[in-house]
C-alpha cells in the first residue's frame, strides 16, 4: 500500500487511523469499536468531511513505527515533542493538555521524586512520559529500574499486583483510576505535554487542516461536542465491561432466589421487609452525609486552594504555618520559609499572552512539587510567587539543599505547545526561630531576602539578614526620587566613542545615561536602572534618552562635527510592549530631523525570552525604516543560532567579560575567535566592548574585529567634552 491516503476521485476519502490502549483518550477493546475523546472528535469531523475511517489497532510502539512507515494516515492521542515534530506532522490544535503522574501500591513508601531511587517502576513502551521520568530521575540522583509494558492498564495492573513498586501513567488515564483499590496516587507530577493528532511527514496536509479547522470551532463553543466528550469521559467513571453470559447468569440466579424466598416463612418476609426499610433509610442518611461532606470539601477547596495549580493558596499557607509554628515552639524545633518569585514572568505574559503564562505557572508548580520532600509544604502565594515551608531541619544546609533542588528543577526549558520557554527564580530564605517567630515576620523577612536575590540578577537564593530591611526602604525611596528626576530634568547623557580599530578613527558613540542627583551627585545607571525596569519607569526614561540623543547627534551634524557618525542607544525589552518602541523611534527621528541610518539601537539577548510575532514585527519595522540594530552583550544571555539567522540584526556587541580576559585566557580567547568567525559567516559587524589594554586592542584588530570601545580609547564623556574630541579628530583629518 502506498504512503498516501487511500482514496479515489469517486469514492469517499479513507483515513487509516492507528488506535491503541490509552483510555479515556483512546481505547481499542478486542472485538469492539474504538472509543475515547480522540475517537469522538475524529468521528464528528469524519461525518462532516465525508471520510471513511479505517481503524488499525496495535500496541503504541508498533503504531509509532507504522506512522513512520506511512502505513497509517493518522495516529490519535500522540504527545507533541520537539523530537517527534522533526519526524511527523502534528495538528496545530491540541486535543487536550496532559502530564505524567506516578502511582504506587499501598505499602510502597514513595511520595516525592527522590523516593523513586532504587525502586522498580512500570512504564509504557515508547511513552514520552516514561522516557521523561527516566531522565528526570537521573538528573536528580533518583535513578530507578524501569519495567516496560505495552499499555497503561498493564502499568496499573503491575502496581496493583505488586510486581513493581510504582508506575507512571498520564493524568487523563489517571483520572479514571485514581481510586482503584491497592493503588495510591503520589505527589510526583512531571512532563506537561499537549496531545495532538499526528500524520506521516510526507502526508497530504488536508486531513490535519480539516481537523484543525473543526477543533478550533468546537473548542471555542463551551456547549459543543468537544466539551460533551470531555464531560462524558472525564467527569464520570466509564461503565465496567462485563462478559455476555453475565446477564443470563444473574437472571438464573434471580429465579432460584425467587423460589427460595417463595417458600420462606411469613415472619421472615416481614423481618426482611422491615430490615430493607431500615437499610434504605440508613442509605439515605449516609448519602446526605456524603453530600454535605462533599459540599464542605468544595467550600474548603475554594477557600484554601489555588484554582490554577491546585496548591494551597495564601490563606491555606497561613493556616498551615501558624499550626506548625505552635508545634515547633513547644518542641523547640526549627523550620525554614522559602519565598519564591519567578523571574521575568511578566515578559512571558506580555510576549505570549496570559494564557501561556498560566500554563507556565502550572508547569512550574508541578516541577517545584516534584523535587520537594514528603514533609515539605508548597503553596502558591499569588501571581508569580510561591512559598515553601521546609520543616524538620537540623542545619541551614538543609534549607540550602531544598533551595538548590528548586532552582535546578527550573533549569530545563518548559514547553508551551511548540514554544520553548526558559525560566528561573529568585528565592529568599528566613529561619524560625533565628530570624522571626511569627507568620507575618517570617514572611516579611523571606520576601525581603527574595528581593535582594532578584536585585543580584535572579536565579539564586539568599538567606535573610537584618540589614536587608534597610535596603528595601531605600529602594522604595529610590523609586520616588527617580520619578521626580525625570520630571525635574535631572537626567543627562554621556557619550563613549566607538573606534574603527584599523584606523583608530572615531566612527560613532554610545549614549550612556547618568542621573545628576542634587543629594548624591552624579549617579551611575547601575544604581537605578533595575528599579526603573521593575516599576516600568524605564519606558518613559528610554523615550527621553532616544529623543535627547538624537537631538544631540543632529546638532553636531549641523555644526559639521559628526559627519557619517552613528549614535548607539540601549533599549529595554519593556519598550517593545504594544509596539511602543517603533512609535517612540518614529517620533524622536521626526522631531529631531535625524536620518534613521545614523541611529543604532542596542538590544540585549533577553529579547529572546519575549520573542513573539509582535516583537519580531517591531524589529522588522525598525530595520525597514533604516535604523541599525545591534545585539548587545552577545554571548551572555539566551541567543540561539536559529534566532541569530532569522532576526534582522546588523551588529554583534561582544561582551566585555570575554574581552577583559584576552589574550591570556585560553578559553575566552577561543570564545572571542568563535564569535568573530560566527559574525563573519552571518555578515554581521562586531563591536568589542570594554577594551582597556593595548594587548586586547591588538589581539582584536589582528583577528578581524572592526570596531571597539573602552577606557583605552576614551571613558564616557559629557557632551561638551566629546564635542572637543570631534573637533580634534576633524582638525587632524584636515591637516593630515
List descriptors.
single chain; 736 residues; Alpha-Beta Plaits; TIM Barrel; eight-stranded mixed barrel; 25 helices; globular
Topology:
Blueprint lengths: L12 E7 L17 H13 L1 E7 L2 H10 L4 E6 L2 H4 L2 E3 L5 E10 L14 E5 L3 H12 L5 E5 L2 H9 L5 E5 H4 L8 E18 L5 H15 L4 H10 L11 H17 L3 H39 L9 H18 L3 E8 L2 H8 L1 H17 L6 E6 L2 E7 L4 H14 L4 E3 L2 E3 L3 E8 L6 H17 L4 E4 L3 H21 L3 E10 L4 E13 L3 E3 L5 H7 L2 H21 L7 E6 L8 H13 L6 E6 L8 H13 L2 E7 L6 H6 L4 E4 L1 H4 L6 H16 L3 E4 L5 H9 L4 E2 L8 E2 H17 L1
Parallel strand pairs: 1-2, 1-3, 6-7, 6-8, 15-16, 18-20, 20-21, 21-22, 22-23, 23-24, 24-25
Antiparallel strand pairs: 3-9, 4-9, 5-8, 5-9, 10-12, 10-15, 11-12, 13-14, 17-18, 17-25, 17-26, 18-19
What features would you describe in this structure?
The protein is an alpha/beta fold and 736 residues long. Among the domains are: 40 residues; 152 residues, 2-Layer Sandwich (Alpha-Beta Plaits); 250 residues, Alpha-Beta Barrel (TIM Barrel), CATH 3.20.20.450. 45% of the residues lie in helices and 22% in strands. The protein contains 25 helices and 26 strands. The strands form 4 sheets. Strands 1, 2, 3, 4, 5, 6, 7, 8 and 9 form a 9-stranded mixed β-sheet that branches. Strand 24, helix 24 and strand 25 form a beta-alpha-beta unit. Helix 12 runs antiparallel to helix 13 and helix 18 packs parallel to helix 19. It is globular and about 115 Å long. It starts with 12 loop residues before the first strand and ends with a helix. About 4% of the residues have low confidence.
Amino acid at each position: 500500500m502506498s504512503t498516501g491516503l487511500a482514496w479515489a476521485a469517486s469514492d469517499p476519502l479513507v483515513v487509516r487511523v492507528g488506535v491503541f490502549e490509552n483510555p479515556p483518550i483512546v481505547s481499542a477493546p478486542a472485538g469492539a469499536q474504538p472509543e475515547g475523546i480522540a475517537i469522538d472528535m475524529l468521528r464528528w469531523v469524519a461525518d462532516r468531511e465525508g471520510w471513511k475511517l479505517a481503524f488499525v489497532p496495535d500496541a503504541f510502539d508498533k503504531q509509532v513505527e507504522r506512522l513512520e512507515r506511512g502505513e497509517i494516515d493518522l495516529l490519535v492521542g500522540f504527545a507533541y515533542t520537539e523530537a517527534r515534530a522533526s519526524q511527523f506532522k502534528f495538528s496545530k490544535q491540541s486535543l487536550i493538555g496532559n502530564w505524567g503522574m506516578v502511582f504506587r501500591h499501598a505499602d510502597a513508601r514513595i511520595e516525592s521524586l527522590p523516593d523513586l531511587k532504587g525502586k522498580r517502576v512500570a512504564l509504557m513502551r515508547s511513552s514520552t512520559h516514561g522516557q521523561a521520568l527516566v531522565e528526570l530521575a537521573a538528573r536528580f540522583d533518583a535513578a530507578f529500574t524501569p519495567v516496560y509494558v505495552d499499555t497503561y492498564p498493564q502499568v496499573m495492573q503491575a502496581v496493583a499486583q505488586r510486581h513493581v513498586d510504582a508506575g507512571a501513567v498520564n493524568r487523563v488515564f489517571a483520572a479514571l483510576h485514581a481510586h482503584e483499590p491497592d493503588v495510591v496516587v503520589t505527589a510526583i507530577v512531571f512532563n506537561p505535554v499537549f496531545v495532538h493528532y499526528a500524520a506521516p511527514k510526507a502526508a497530504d496536509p488536508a486531513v490535519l487542516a480539516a481537523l484543525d479547522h473543526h477543533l478550533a470551532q468546537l473548542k471555542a463553543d463551551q456547549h459543543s461536542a468537544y466539551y460533551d466528550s470531555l464531560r462524558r469521559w472525564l467527569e464520570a467513571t466509564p461503565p465496567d465491561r462485563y462478559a455476555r453470559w453475565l446477564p443470563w447468569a444473574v437472571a438464573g440466579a434471580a429465579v432460584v432466589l425467587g423460589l427460595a424466598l417463595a417458600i420462606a416463612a411469613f415472619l421472615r418476609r416481614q423481618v426482611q421487609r422491615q430490615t430493607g426499610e431500615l437499610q434504605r433509610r440508613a442509605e439515605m442518611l449516609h448519602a446526605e452525609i456524603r453530600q454535605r461532606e462533599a459540599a464542605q470539601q468544595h467550600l474548603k477547596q475554594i477557600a484554601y486552594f489555588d484554582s490554577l495549580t491546585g496548591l494551597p493558596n495564601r490563606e491555606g499557607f497561613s493556616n498551615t504555618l501558624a499550626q506548625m509554628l505552635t508545634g515547633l515552639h513547644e518542641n523547640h524545633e526549627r523550620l525554614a520559609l522559602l519565598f519564591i518569585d519567578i523571574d521575568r514572568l511578566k515578559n512571558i505574559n506580555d510576549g505570549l499572552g496570559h494564557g501561556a503564562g498560566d500554563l507556565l505557572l502550572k508547569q512550574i508548580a508541578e516541577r517545584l512539587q516534584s523535587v520537594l520532600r514528603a514533609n515539605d509544604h508548597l503553596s502558591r502565594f499569588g501571581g508569580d510567587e510561591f512559598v515553601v515551608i521546609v520543616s524538620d531541619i537540623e542545619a541551614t544546609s538543609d534549607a540550602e539543599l531544598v533551595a538548590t533542588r528548586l532552582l535546578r528543577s527550573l533549569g530545563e526549558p518548559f514547553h508551551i505547545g511548540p514554544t520553548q520557554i526558559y525560566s528561573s527564580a529568585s528565592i529568599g530564605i528566613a529561619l524560625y526561630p533565628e530570624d522571626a517567630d511569627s507568620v507575618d515576620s517570617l514572611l516579611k523577612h523571606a520576601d525581603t531576602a527574595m528581593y535582594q536575590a532578584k536585585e543580584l540578577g535572579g536565579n539564586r537564593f539568599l538567606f535573610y539578614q537584618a540589614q536587608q530591611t534597610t535596603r528595601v526602604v531605600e529602594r522604595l525611596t529610590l523609586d520616588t526620587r527617580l520619578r521626580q528626576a525625570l520630571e525635574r530634568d535631572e537626567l543627562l547623557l554621556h557619550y563613549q566613542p566607538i573606534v574603527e580599530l584599523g584606523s583608530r578613527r572615531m566612527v560613532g558613540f554610545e549614549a550612556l545615561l547618568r542621573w545628576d542627583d542634587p543629594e548624591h551627585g552624579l549617579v551611575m545607571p547601575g544604581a537605578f536602572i533595575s528599579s526603573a525596569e521593575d516599576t516600568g519607569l524605564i519606558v518613559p526614561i528610554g523615550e527621553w534618552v532616544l529623543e535627547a540623543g538624537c537631538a544631540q547627534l543632529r546638532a553636531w551634524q549641523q555644526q559639521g562635527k559628526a559627519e557619517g557618525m552613528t549614535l548607539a542607544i540601549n533599549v529595554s525589552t519593556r519598550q517593545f510592549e504594544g509596539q511602543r518602541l517603533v512609535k517612540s523611534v518614529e517620533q524622536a527621528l521626526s522631531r529631531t530631523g535625524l536620518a534613521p541610518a545614523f541611529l543604532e539601537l542596542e538590544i540585549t539577548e533577553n529579547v529572546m525570552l519575549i520573542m513573539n510575532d509582535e516583537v519580531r514585527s517591531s524589529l522588522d519595522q525598525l530595520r525597514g525604516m533604516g535604523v541599525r540594530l545591534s545585539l548587545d552583550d552577545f554571548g551572555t544571555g539566551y541567543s540561539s543560532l536559529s534566532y541569530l539567522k532569522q532576526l534582522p540584526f546588523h551588529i554583534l556587541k561582544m561582551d566585555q567579560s570575554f574581552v577583559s580576559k584576552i589574550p591570556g585566557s585560553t578559553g575566552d580567547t577561543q570564545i572571542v575567535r568563535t564569535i568573530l568567525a560566527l559574525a563573519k559567516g552571518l555578515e554581521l559587524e562586531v563591536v568589542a566592548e570594554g577594551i582597556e589594554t593595548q594587548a586586547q586592542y591588538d589581539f582584536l584588530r589582528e583577528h578581524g574585529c572592526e570596531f571597539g570601545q573602552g577606557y583605552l580609547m576614551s571613558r564616557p564623556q559629557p557632551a561638551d567634552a566629546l564635542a572637543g574630541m570631534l573637533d580634534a579628530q576633524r582638525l587632524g583629518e584636515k591637516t593630515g
